[in-house]
Amino acid sequence: MALNNNDKEAAQTREQLKKQKEEQKETLSSKRKRIRVRLIPIWLKVFIVAVLLVASVILGAMVGYSVMGEGEAKDIFEKSTWTHIMELVNKEK
C-alpha cells in the first residue's frame, strides 16, 4: 500500500511540474515580442514614393502641355516654356 501512495504522490507532483512548465512557457511567450523583419526598409519606401511623385509630376506636365496645350511634350524641359507659363499665371487683368 505504501507503493500506491508513493505512485499517487509521484503522479501528482508530475502533474504539478507540467502545469508549472506550461505556466512558465505562457509567461515567456507573452513577454517576448515578435521582431518583424521588413522586406523593404522604410528609407527605401520614402525614396520610392519621392521618385514616383517626381515622375508623376513630369508625366502630368508632359501630357497636359502636349495634349491640352497642343505643344510638344519635350518642350516642358525648356526654361522659356516655364517663363511663358509663369507670365500667363501671374498676368494682371
Automatic annotation (TrEMBL):
Coiled coil: none annotated. InterPro entries: RNApol_su_b/EpuA. Residues 1-31 are annotated as: Disordered. The chain crosses the membrane at residues 42-65. Pfam families: EpuA. Keywords: DNA-directed RNA polymerase, Membrane, Transcription, Transmembrane, Transmembrane helix. The keyword Phosphoprotein does not apply. One of its GO terms (cellular component) is DNA-directed RNA polymerase complex. Residues 1-29 have a biased composition (Basic and acidic residues). This is DNA-directed RNA polymerase subunit beta.
